Amino acid sequence: MASARRRLASISAALAPAPSPAATAAPSAPPAAYAFAPHQSEAAVEFFREWGFALLASTRSPAELRQLNELCDASQQAHPERWSQQASRAPGGGGGAGKLGSDLASPEQYMELLSPIMFHPELDDALIRGGWGWPVVEELLGGPELCRFVQFDFRETPATAENLEMKYHRDGARGGVRDGGSDRAADYIAAITLLSPSHDHTPNTVVVPGSAHVDATDIDELREKMGADYTEIVVQQPAGTTLLYDVRTFHTRRDPPEGRDNHGRRTQHSYFSRHPAPPRGQWMIYPQRLAAHAEPTVRRFYSNWNELMAGYAASGYEDAYLAEHGEELLMAYLSRS
Q1: What SS3 state is found at 193?
Q2: Cys-Cys crosslink for 302: which of 247, 287, 290, 335, Cβ 3.0 to 4.6 Å?
Q3: Is 24 a domain residue?
C-alpha cells in the first residue's frame, strides 16, 4: 500500500500544466506514473485494482485509428444530422458530447447513437476486442469466461462546441452496479480510446484515483471522505491511448477554459461487464452477426441481453421489431439515471 501511495504521489508531480500545443506537439509517450506500455500489462492490472483506472499507451495501430476516423468522417458527411453537437451537452449531465445521432430526434437516429455496430459490419469482434489492452480487461473482469460486451460508440466534441460544465459522476449509477464500498472487483469497465490527441486545447477526461472504492453520493462528499488523498488526474495523451476505468470511479469531461481555442476531440467508448452483472441499460441492441455468431465463445461474449434485445433475437432479428420498438429504445436511453 505504501508503495502504491508513493506511485500515486508521483502522478501528481507528473501533472504540472502542459505547455500550449502551439509551442509543443502532443506528447509522444505517456507519463510513466499511471500509464503503461504493452509489456507492462501485469503492472496495469495491479494499478487498476488499487486505483480504479489505468492508461494504456498505443492500444490502436495507425491503421485502426485511420479506419475508425474514416468511418466517423464518412458518417458525418452522409448523415450530418446524426452528429448534432449540443443536445447531449446539457450542463451538469454525465453524457458525452456529439455522439453519433446525439440530437435524438427520432428512434431511427437513436440506433446509430449507441449501436454503430448495427450499421457498420466492419466493426467486427476482432476490432472490438482488438489491441494489447484487451487481455488487461479480461483479467480485471475475471477471465474470458466471465467477460461480456456492453456498448461500443463514438463521441465527438467539435471545435465549435459551446463550453458547458459537466458534473463529476459515476457511470455506475446505472445498471445495478455497486456504488462504492470495499469490494475492489469491478463489475463494469469503461474504455475511452482517443481517436484524436488530447491536450490543453481540447476537452479532457478527468478521473479521481481510488474513488471507485469510496462510498460517496457526490463529488463534495467524496472530497470530504478522501481528504488529503483526493487527487484529480487530467488525461492528456496522443491518439491511440486508452483510458480504462471502473465505472464507479468519479470522472468528468473538462473543456478548455473560456477564451482558449478549442481544437475539439473525438473518442471511441466501450463498456464491458463481469458475468453475472445485469445489462447496463435497456437501450443496447446487438447485430445478429455477433449475437448469433457461429463461434460459441463469441456468442457468449455478446450474450448479456436486456429485454428488448431478447425480443429482437426472438423475432429472428427482424427489422420490423426494431421499427416497432424504436421509440421504446429511445425512451429507455433518455430516461436513464
Answers
A1: strand
A2: 290
A3: no
